[in-house]
Amino acid sequence: MELPSWLDPSNSENRIYIHNGKVYIIPLPSTPADIMQIPSAGKLDRERAVQLVRKRPDMVANAGIQNAILDRLSGYPEAAKTELHGAKCTLPKQAAFVLLREPQLLPLAIEAFYLRDPMSLKACAAMQRFSPANNNVVSTTIQFTRTTYAQTVSQKFYPPKPFNLPPVSRKKEHQAAELGMKLACGMEMLYADDRLQQPEEEAAEDVRTYRFTQDPKWREFSNNVTRLGYFRGEKEGSRLYNELELKAKEQYLLQRRERLYVHTEDVDVDDMSILYRSSSINMNARKKIDTILAEYSEETLQEALDNNQIVEGSDDWMQVDAQQLEEMLTKRLGNMKDDVVADMEKEMKDETEPAVDLEKIISSFEHFVEGSQSGIDGVEFPGGNTGDDSEYDEEDEMEDEDQAISFDMERFMNILKGSLDIPEAQMQHTQPSTKDKSTEQVDNLSNLMQQMDQEVYGHDKIGKSFAKATENEDEDEEDESAPVDVQLNLVKNVLESFKSQQGLPGPAGNILSQFGVALPTDNEE
After folding, report:
1. What residues pair up with 378 in beta bridges, in sequence order?
2. What is the largest CA-CA distance in the chain?
């Protein structure tokens, strides 16, 4: 990178200017004399920054930065034509008319669509300004930049109720209708956005008429000042609270008006109308749309369609092969290409190499089952520390330690005897002698476990759900009597559970993360 190492977005505000065709960077103070002129931290005042740029020619950026910028700009403005893309769209007639008359509204509409939120989507449910109802649509070619086109087509967006798209089987018609639907929704959201009111309307707004309840920025502002203690703990609705809220609203509207207007005291341009023309598009989007639609009619729409010279282009440029990627990296990154390619190769290598330690998964689960404890707050992992979240006092902990878990073998055998309906006489007949009691108990338990296994294997669906170990790997058919491999089934079930999460949080992923095991994302292979 040619830029200074200290320069980043956090400290670059009002420090970079273009003056007399060259880039100026206001540096951080390096001498005691500079401290009096250039602030070392915090926001640099814009008026002071402009004075420094005009009076200090030594602040011009070095030749490396100048050349890097000129290299990126070489070929422009002619090269800008290669960044354009024409695409066929089927959209409401009013939207087509507005975009053909004022193409500069297209990026704003796509930005509104791309950055949509639940509040702005409410406008798409009704489509009051650009309604497609009653076949009020037309097909035409709209000119995008490659960036705006890629942003639009890459977004997965389900059509709102007013839209009725052709079936997917009619591929070209469906693509044109889907693209036009996204554009129309963007236009509707742009028009309905209260944040883009006309500056003259904003100037007329005051605390009594401004719709604070519909402004999410005001809610954010109010929450911030409340958190900072601005309301002094007063209850909402009290006299002091209302006075403080009124002052906060006045300050908010003042800051809002300052953001809406373009300050021109530090702008050096020969024709100020150029600046006003470019800035007014964003400021007056709704007013601009209303002005254009005031001239709308079927005749004016047909005239605009007939005069449209935009040609539909191929979107093959969105498909990039390895050679094209190499050329793009070389052109864009220059000396940085080798570092970027090395990072990409490392990531690809990490993805292809197996990083799953199955033995670690098995041993971790065994240790988890044997060493974990469960309480009202859930499972406590072995070695885990509840810290400050524990709600038990020391006496409760001592009681829990005294009440250790014990296993009553005799009671367990009685439960098994009752569930298996073994006659009492048979149980007495098979009672072992005192001498061989411990050995006989183990044998009886083993026999009972075998009977339970046979009961499970007797059900086809249950038996076939287990993975079984086979000594011969070449055998195609699995022996039904083969023993169940517990560890194999454990790994199989864990991996299937993790796959079913589809990359989202879930039980398998949460437990594995406690074990320090990170499974790769599923690539459907």
Report:
1. 375
2. 113
Rounded to whole angstroms, the Cα distance separating 410 from 432 reads 14
Q: How many CA atoms lie within 13 A of 66 on its CB side?
A: 12
pLDDT digits (tens, 9 = 90+) for 157-177: 999 999 999 999 999 999 999
Residue 522: alpha-carbon gap to chain centroid: 19
Q: Is 92 exposed, middle or buried (0-12, 13-18, 19+ CB in 10 A)?
A: buried
Cα separation, 94 vs 242, whole angstroms: 45
In this structure, what token pair is assigned to residue 307? 């005069």
User: Residue 377 pLDDT > 70, yes or no?
Assistant: no
**Percent above pLDDT 90 for the chain:** 25
d(CA 245, CA 232): 11
Please indicate whether residue 334 or residue 70 has the higher confidence score (pLDDT): 70
Inter-axis angle of helices 105-114 and 146-153, nearest 10: 30
Contact assessment for residue 92 and residue 183, using Cβ atoms and an 8 Å cutoff = no
Any idea which residue has 């990490």 for tokens? 350
| pTM for the structure as a whole | 0.50
pLDDT of residue 455: 74
Across 123-154, b (16+ Cβ under 10 Å) vs e yields: bbeebebbbbeeeebbebbbbbeeebbebbee
Q: For 129-267, where are the E strands, in sequence order?
A: 137-145
- Report phi then psi at 355, rounded to 5: -115, 10
**Ramachandran category for residue 480: left, alpha or beta (phi over 0 → left; psi -120 to 50 → alpha):** alpha
Note the Cα 516 to chain centre separation in Å: 25
Task: Calculate the CA 107 to chain-centre distance.
Answer: 22
pLDDT at 272: 47
**d(C-alpha 129, C-alpha 188), whole Å:** 6
Distance CA 204, CA 402 (A): 75
The tokens for 90 are 């089927």
pLDDT in tens, 200-215: 555 556 778 888 887 8
Residue 370's contacts (CB-CB under 8 Å, 6 or more residues apart) are none
- Cα dihedral 47, 50, 56, 62, rounded to 10, equals 140
Residue 140 φ then ψ, to 5°:
-155, 175
Mean pLDDT of the chain: 76
List pLDDT tens digits, range 41-73: 666 788 888 888 998 888 899 988 898 888 888
Q: In degrees rounded to 5, what are phi and psi of residue 166?
A: -65, 160
Question: Could you give the CA distance from residue 413 to residue 436 in angstroms, rounded to a whole number?
Answer: 17
Q: Which letter does DSSP use for residue 381 in this model? A: P
> What are the CA-CA distances from residue 294 to residues 21, 94, 300, 301 (Å)?
42, 10, 11, 12
What is the average per-residue pLDDT within 333-351?
62
Whose tokens are 């879930």? That residue is: 506
Q: Cα–chain-centroid distance for residue 149?
A: 20
Q: At residue 81, what is the residue type?
A: K
Angle between helices 272-283 and 285-293 (to 10 degrees): 90
* Secondary structure element (H or E) that encloses residue 154, with its range: none
